[in-house]
Amino acid sequence: MNPSEIEKLANLARLEINAETIEETAKSITEVLALVDQLTAVNTEGVRPMAHPLDAVQRLRADEVSEPNRRDEFQHIAPATENGLYLVPKVID
After folding, report:
1. Is residue 76 over pLDDT 90?
2. In angstroms, rounded to a whole number, what is the distance separating the alpha carbons of residues 5 and 72?
3. DSSP for 32-91, written as a single string
4. Enclosing H/E stretch for 20
5. Which residues are CB-contacts of 87 (< 8 A; sequence separation ≥ 6)?
6. pTM, entire model
7. How much is the pLDDT for 50?
8. How far apart are CA 35 and CA 37, in angstroms?
9. 18, exposed or middle or buried, with CB in 10 Å at 0-12, 13-18, 19+?
10. Can you tell me the mean pLDDT for 64-74?
11. For residue range 16-52, what is the model confidence (pLDDT) as tens digits?
12. Which of the pair, 51 or 83, is modelled with greater confidence?
């Protein structure tokens, strides 16, 4: 990327970039794009996609009810209920 392209991108992104950092930014983005080109050139055929780069296991807690059912208490103080449901004002026609 050249400095004029960086200025155009900064303008499109509504970013303010000063003249001193344009050259440095252009160089950094060019290096990143070169790395992306290098990565896309690798043959990944037959490589199984991974959800996570580490062999991590998600620990889950037991699906057990731990709180008492207080629906009747809460609906008793609600402005409007019907058949166990809360009634709310209509906001979309």
Report:
1. yes
2. 63
3. HHHHHHHHHTS--TTPPP-S-SS------------S---HHHHHHHSS-EETTEE-----
4. helix 19-40
5. 79, 80, 81
6. 0.48
7. 84
8. 5
9. exposed
10. 94
11. 999 889 999 999 999 999 999 999 999 999 998 888 8
12. 83
- With tokens 């008492």, the residue in question is 68
CA 59 to chain centroid: 22
User: What type of residue sits at position 89?
Assistant: P
Percentage of residues of the chain with pLDDT beyond 90: 74
The torsion of the CA quartet 56, 57, 58, 59, rounded to 10 degrees, works out to: -130
Question: For residue 89, how far is the Cα from the chain centroid?
Answer: 32
What pLDDT, on the 0 to 100 scale, is given for residue 57?
A: 84
Instruction: Give the alpha-carbon dihedral of 77, 81, 86, 91, to 10 degrees.
Output: -110
- Retrieve residue 72's tokens: 């009747």
Place of tokens 């699906």: 63
Residues shown for the chain: 93
